Amino acid sequence: MNRSIRLAAAFALVLILILLANLTWIQAFKEDEYANNPLNRRGFYEMKSIPRGQISTGGVVLASSEQDANGFYQRSYPSDSPAAYAPVTGYLSDQYGASGLESSYNAVLNGTDPALFTSRWLDTLTGKESAGANLELTLDPAMQQVAHDMLTGSNYEGAAVALRPSTGEVLAMASSPGYDPNGIVDPATASTAWADVTSREGNPLINHATQDTLPPGSIFKIITTSAGLNNGYSSGSLLTGAPEITLPGTTTTLTNYGGQACAGGGDVTLETAFSLSCNTAFVQLAIDVGADAVRSTAEAFGVGEQYDLGLPVSGGALGELPDDAALGQTAIGQRDVTMSALQAAVMAATVANDGKRMEPHVVKRITGADLRELNVTQPREITQAVSPEIAGQLEQLMLASERNTAGGRAGIASKTGTAEHGDEGTPPHTWYVAYLPDRDVAVGVVVKNGGGLGTGATGGQVASPVGRAILDAAGGA
């Protein structure tokens, strides 16, 4: 063999080795990346060729798939009020991808999740068409509809969450403004619907209940009070009722709502300060118990924590507490404190559950195409935020607060909040957290920017009617 032939053969061998190495690299290490790449139409067509599992709650089908004339399955959201559930279900669009549970539980719904391997293997052996698994949610249809209607019917921008305190089940999760996912998933209307929803004010595609974190205002006084009760205070402890208080080390004064004295001024009990939401009293209390006590209590109630709901969740924050001036502002839910409606509901539910904070969840169970139960979400306690005794004291304070709230009703334990943000001319965010002591349900509501009532809006005026309506719809919860 002459030299030129040997060189050509060696070069060909090197090329073959490079090709084999490249194929090995792709097959062994890059298969998932390429298989799941959005540009890979093979995966897309495979997904569209398999019946996708349903999403349902309380006997209501929220998402289903139907086969079209080409043999592909198209997603739809057939409930009477698809916009009410969109913040949770999300959407699955050929053009715009997926969101919500459609995205996070995609592998379960399309049947490719490793946990479904046995079912797929049996389907292959028997020649049965493979199908995705189903999600059954914890949402209560009546409560969900009321929460949605109360927010959207008044053109509010905000959110509402209802929980079952004993288990952490999410009974309602409403977000406003919202959208109808059917327009986005229908190829004939997708472009127009997407352009409309993405151009509207208020970020309709955002789940405001879990992603929007805002200053909570006076509902945070539940946490400040808990820190006090855990450090020697009682409902009869005396605090200042002065109309204003100077923050330590500064010339800045912090006032009560409207600059008014609390119950005529002088010293007032913690019960009076809580029921009338006297800012100056809680500044004094927080500075007395200290930053560590407030921070540890806030963390115990879940401030700053992100929950695995299968939905995008923002954790909120307590913020830095470098000095007593910062602590005083934080004590009334201002400065750098932020919470979501979900976290507010968790806070109320923790008090309702004798101080135990449960992990919230929205998926109740997963079932196969044959409706055989594959997985059930078990309640999980995260922490004992406060003792049952302190939770009982908080309940009495919240019952007194409801009695002093506009439209207050006997038998509801609650706290309102009116949170300043922006400049003096910006309407406040309004909050309401509440629960029914004789029932297993708690709510958290936020209506942004005063709900159209201007700078004088309060949580009692705007947010509390929404929360009470949801509690009224609780039925046997």
TrEMBL record:
Source superkingdom: Bacteria
Q: Name one GO cellular component term.
A: plasma membrane
Where is each Penicillin-binding protein transpeptidase domain found?
A: 158-471
Q: What GO biological process terms are annotated to this protein in UniProt? A: cell wall organization
Annotated InterPro entries = Beta-lactam/transpept, Beta-lactam/transpept-like, PBPA_dimer, PCN-bd_Tpept
Write out the GO MF terms: penicillin binding; peptidoglycan L,D-transpeptidase activity
Q: Report the residue ranges that make up the Penicillin binding protein A dimerisation domain in this protein.
A: 52-134
Q: Which PANTHER family match?
A: PENICILLIN-BINDING PROTEIN 4B, PEPTIDOGLYCAN D,D-TRANSPEPTIDASE
- Name of this chain's protein: Uncharacterized protein
Q: Which organism is it from?
A: Corynebacterium humireducens NBRC 106098 = DSM 45392
